[in-house]
Amino acid sequence: MIPLGLVEIAAIVGGTVAGDGSVTVTAPAVLDGRRAEPGGLFVAFAGEHVDGHEYAGQAGRAGAVAVLGSKPTPLPTVVVEDPRTALQTLAAHAVARLRAGLTVAGLTGSQGKTGTKDLLAAVLSSAAPTTATIGSLNNELGVPLTMLRADAATRFLVLEMGARHVGDIAALTGLAAPDIAVVLNVGQAHLGEFGSRAAIARTKGELVRGLAPGGTAVISADDPRVAAMRALTDGPVLTFGRAEHADVRVLDLALDRLGRPSFTLRTAHASVPVTLPLVGAHQALNASAAAAAGLAAGVPLDVAAAALATASLSKWRMEPRALACGATLLNDSYNANPDSTRAALDALAAVEGGRRIAVLGEMLELGADSEAEHRAIGRYAARRADVVLAVGEAARPIADGAGEQAVTPADRDAAVDWLRGQLAAGDVVLVKASRGAHLDEVAAALA
Q: Side by side, which strands form the sheet with 66-69?
């Protein structure tokens, strides 16, 4: 974060200072007081059940020197009417101050956002200091928090942008108009909230509409809804994918015995081999998106390929782990929708080993088609796995679709008990569900 005095912060966000106004904030803003850094800013919200202002002391002990909130605290505090709006205003101001030497890359999609963000951060970091979204902090609070982590040394700012409603991404681009807009796909994530894929496409397209003047759109050549976003900008467009006309094209895709992809990335002017240390064929498409965005940022294809070869992903995204019993765990438990679950099941099927066991839970926010989508995933899983554990009552339609291959543990504990009693050396087990299903607890128990 760029250093800002408390009086200056108050002027920026339209607040007043309670306490010592001579304090200067020099470290990033946080919402969790336990994660505060020396010199940092704690942003406090008064919720229905928890009042963040009560944790100002905790934040201070961790190193925070000030609070941004709606009432005074024991720490010097900038008091505002709406801390969320104030946080966004502060972030927009901070990035505007850095804009002359900063390239902003925004990234969205129905699935693969976080993995591709991680790959893009690796590509850009190989060229210059880069600040990127941590994990999936991609909403109206996470994006400004990431923006405030940029400092005078930052040359690339990578912002993952998520949405649950039409207009969400437009609001985020209003904080920092991207110089590079990456749109991966239009799928079924949050379909229950949006109501239709057309609404999802409109929302993802807000990232392209929000480009800074002269900015570059980096869009999928494989997804027709995304490819159509070319019409949303008069600026440069780069495409990626397996389609013959893609500007950054994936060719010669092959998987090793652990399901890790090797392939060629080809442009009109260069061709480079890439081997990823990640599980799943879908990672090759994510890598092509990252490489295309890298080209838009001035990173040569061969430099991008070298960075991709050593990249890693945020936790619980196709995270492989060897278990004590000799089985292999693929922990993809952070989130799920039908498209990402099929990709994970394809990855499971590609890993060589003994039995393939898919541990699946509920996929949330699918709307009226939820039961049918879960049943379809069960049928798909039955073709990719030897055993399908559908965990909990909400996952019952998955079991219905999987038929005789289904096992139906009543809850997470029962799933762990079954797995501990059944897993053997050489087995491969995938854990996948929406975050609300908490199947990360199953993965943690096994590991």
A: 16-18, 77-79, 66-69, 41-43, 29-30
Please name which of 172, 175, 218, 225 lies closest in space to residue 200, comparing C-alpha atoms.
Answer: 225
Q: Which two tokens stand for residue 298?
A: 């001035």
376, 415, 368: which is closest to 393 by C-alpha? Answer: 415
Q: Tokens in use for 234?
A: 């008069």
Q: Are strands 77-79 and 66-69 parallel, antiparallel or unpaired?
A: parallel
Beta-bridged to residue 320, according to DSSP, are: 330
Amino acid symbol at 139: N
Report how far Cα 58 is from the mean position of its chain's Cα atoms: 28
Instruction: Give me the percent of the chain exceeding a pLDDT of 90.
Output: 88
Structure token pair of residue 330: 């693929």
The SS3 assignment for 60 reads helix
Query: How confident is the prediction for the chain on average, in pLDDT?
Result: 95
Q: What is the pLDDT of residues 174-192, one digit of tens each?
A: 999 999 999 999 976 666 6
Report DSSP letters for 232-277, one per residue: G-SS-EEEEESSTT-SEEEEEEEE-TT--EEEEEE-SS-EEEEE-S
- The SS3 call for residue 124 is helix
Q: Which amino acid is at 44?
A: A
Those residues with Cβ within 8 angstroms of residue 324's Cβ, 6 or more apart along the chain or in another chain: none
- Residues 224 and 201: their CA atoms lie apart, in Å, by 10
Cα angle, residue 240 at apex, residues 236 and 243 outer, rounded to 5°: 120
Q: What are phi and psi of 204, to 5 degrees?
A: -65, -35
